[in-house]
Amino acid sequence: MKFIIGVIIVLGCVGGGFVLSHGHLAALWQPFELVIICGAAFGAFVISNPGTVIKDSFGSIGKLLSGSKHNKASYMELLALMYDLFTKARKEGLMALEGDIDEPHESPIFQKYPKILKNHHALDFIADYLRLMVGGNMNPFEIENLMDVELDTHHHEAAKVPTAFTAVSDALPGFGIVAAVLGIVITMASIGGPVEELGKHVAAALVGTFLGILFAYGFVGPMATSLTAMNEDDSKVFECIKVCLLASLNGYAPQISVEFGRKTLESHNRPGFQELEDFVKGKSE
Q1: Which residues of 159-174 are buried (b: 16+ CB within 10 A; e: fewer)?
Q2: I need a surface site. Which of 195, 208, 215, 226 has the fewest CB within 10 A?
Q3: DSSP letters along 236-255, please?
Q4: Predicted pLDDT of residue 195
Q5: Residue 245: inside a domain, yes or no?
Q6: pTM of the model as a whole
Q7: E strand or H helix at 6, and its extent?
Q8: Angle at CA 118, nearest 5°, toward 112 and 122?
Q9: Nearest 5 degrees, angle CA 114-CA 115-CA 120?
Q10: Is 219 contained in some domain?
Q11: CA–CA separation, 99 and 96 (whole Å)
Q12: Is 69 helix (H, G, I), strand (E, B) or coil?
């Protein structure tokens, strides 16, 4: 929704300002300029990126439309889940978690937290490292190093799509100039004809430059920035899980381990100490 609102604001202000300045919107409709700019940008995008990035880039459009799925409520569910898992492990031993981590969708603990079940990346991360903890063959330092390697890989992979969008954004003004130069070529070929026709060709050439800059700074560039921010939100989830698991592995009580995770959250998503405690107790009853 935020993405749609932003697009409306950009188009409304640019188009509205043009009309209020006694411009005619029809003059901005230059479909062949759009073909040149958008087609060249898409072709360069295909040349520059592997198939996986191209596929993920199209998939990211839905992510932009839906916005970030992480908020205070989802983090409270995550922390409450970690608390329940740690509490069970402390009471019954780590081996008691085997059934929960092997079949999380069938686990009574995980079923209490549907938002976490829908986040398969976070779910796999929790299950994988709890499985290593249950095995008992790795010390906390080894597990932390392994987590860091996995998170670095995740960050690098997630950054590929925003980087691809940024490259397209940087290229669009140049393709706008290409369209403008081609328009000037057409204009020069029309010299000697009616003055009105020359004016139309010059206007079309200038629209090419305008569209390239508008698409770059009004849409594609902000899309890359928004995706980067969403990836940072995703990373915060893994950081929170990592800190909780390591605290528990180092022998801290469930409530303290969860408090470690709470401290990693940004202020606008971080529940208060008492707020989280009340929520956790309500879920545990």
Answers
A1: eebbbbbbbbbebbbe
A2: 195
A3: HHHHHHHHHHHHHHTT--HH
A4: 67
A5: yes
A6: 0.84
A7: helix 2-20
A8: 95
A9: 100
A10: no
A11: 7
A12: coil
Q: What is the pLDDT of residue 223?
A: 95
Would residue 93 count as lying in a domain? yes
Domain containing residue 113: 72-158+231-284
Largest Cα separation within the chain, whole Å, is: 92
Structural contact between residues 70 and 235, judged by C-beta atoms closer than 8 angstroms: no
pLDDT tens per residue, range 154-205: 999 999 999 999 999 999 999 999 999 988 888 887 777 676 677 787 888 8
Q: What is the pLDDT of residues 87-103, one digit of tens each?
A: 998 888 888 888 888 88
Do residues 3 and 64 lie in contact, with contact meaning Cβ atoms separated by under 8 Å?
yes
Tell which residue, 80, 111, 107, has the closest CA to residue 241: 80
- One-letter amino acid at 229 equals A
- Who's near 230: CB < 8 A, 6+ residues apart? 63, 67, 68
Question: Which amino acid type is present at position 90?
Answer: R
Token pair, residue 51, equals 């198939």
Structure-token match 């043009």, residue found: 18
Query: Does any domain span residue 121?
Result: yes
Predicted pLDDT at 23? 86
- Structural domains counted in the chain: 1
